[in-house]
Amino acid sequence: VSRFEGISMAPPDPTIGVSEAFRASTNERKLDLAVRAYRTEELQPYLLNVVKKAEMLMLERGEHREYLPIEGLAAFNKVTVELLFGVDNPVIKQQRVATVQSISGTGSLRLAAELIERYFPGVKVLMSSPSWSNHKDIFNDARVPWSEYRYYDPKTVGLDFEGMIADIKAAPEGSFVLLQGCAHNPTGIDPTPEQWEKIADVVQEKNHIPFFDVAYQGFASGNLDADASSVRLFAARGMELMVAQSYSKNLGLYAERIGAINVVCSSADAVARVKSQLQRLARPMYSNPPVHGAKIVTNVVGDPDLFNEWRKEMEMMAKRIKSMRRKLYDSLTVKDKSGKDCGDLLDEEYSLPS
Ligand code: PLP
């Protein structure tokens, strides 16, 4: 008998059921909407040209593969914080950001969750209802209590802004408020700039700490600066905040696991302390982060030519995503002559797993 007898089967990831049903379907016109990556017109994974170029440069230079320090590649940390806030942002000039390269967006969120668990015991994280499904699991596993604020309103298929504000207001003073910087997963609904201002008002009023998850910078609008405007708006108010970043989507570096956690503090002194603790938490979890993707990002963002090329490629991807969505919507809402929905892209035999 196995010593692991007491271990029961873990429930499957909810998205896997959708992918399996997709594979099993024999409908020629099937579309996989569960795939978590950008695909080409030919349904193939997309390797960005700028990534290829950066990798060529790295090969030419014969870059080594020695361990990075716990905090990651210093040059990566510099470009990533500049990309997020903009080079001239006072938070950078005043050295008020603790940046640590971590294991993409997920690992950065988890590292921040560990920091919350250790230094803010009992403090809740508020997240949108619904949110990316992993958010709950990340905070559960880090033993950080969380609750939800209203976000999606099925009646308007839009943002329940009043509900969101009311729930953030009603939360205990000094909570963490998890916000998605842009391209909200899973609703695709982002607050308007005016709404972001009002959200910042209540967050500030309640002395909450904003905690941004930025997994899609550049992917929402095609513009890196526009997509970071929510985060920058909060920073411009002089607030302390946390931001988890990911390069999975915008550079197509999914499996390289490249991202960072940034903690904006009110003093350079606090930055040093926070950074030291982030490193202390990271060391026993994974020792140090990966180097290959960090160098790709550094080469792309740090080189004006490659950076410009990246911006164009990203704009292309963002535009194509929008047009795909439009086409899907139009196809699903086609009406036949009698006014009945055709929705003929939907496989009638397939319904979503509950
Ligand atoms: N946050 C959100 C909202 C996401 O949708 C994702 C990926 O789907 C992530 C974070 C993390 O992705 P990764 O760990 O690949 O950076």
Tell me the layout of helices and strands.
Blueprint: H1 14-24, H2 49-61, H3 74-85, H4 90-93, E1 97-103, H5 104-119, E2 125-129, H6 133-141, E3 146-150, E4 152-153, E5 158-159, H7 161-170, E6 176-180, H8 193-205, E7 209-214, H9 224-227, H10 229-236, E8 241-246, E9 258-264, H11 268-286, H12 292-302, H13 304-332
Parallel strand pairs: 2-3, 2-6, 6-7, 7-8
Antiparallel strand pairs: 1-9, 4-5, 8-9
What is the rounded distance between the termini?
34 Å
Order of helices and strands: HHHHEHEHEEEHEHEHHEEHHH
* Unreliable stretches: 345-354
SS-derived structural category: alpha/beta
Number of alpha- plus pi-helical segments: 13
Shape assignment: globular
Helix content range of the residues, please? 40-55%
The biggest beta sheet, please? 7 strands, mixed
Strand content: 5-15%
Rg on CA atoms, Å: 21 Å
Question: What is the residue-averaged pLDDT?
Answer: 93
Number of strands: 9
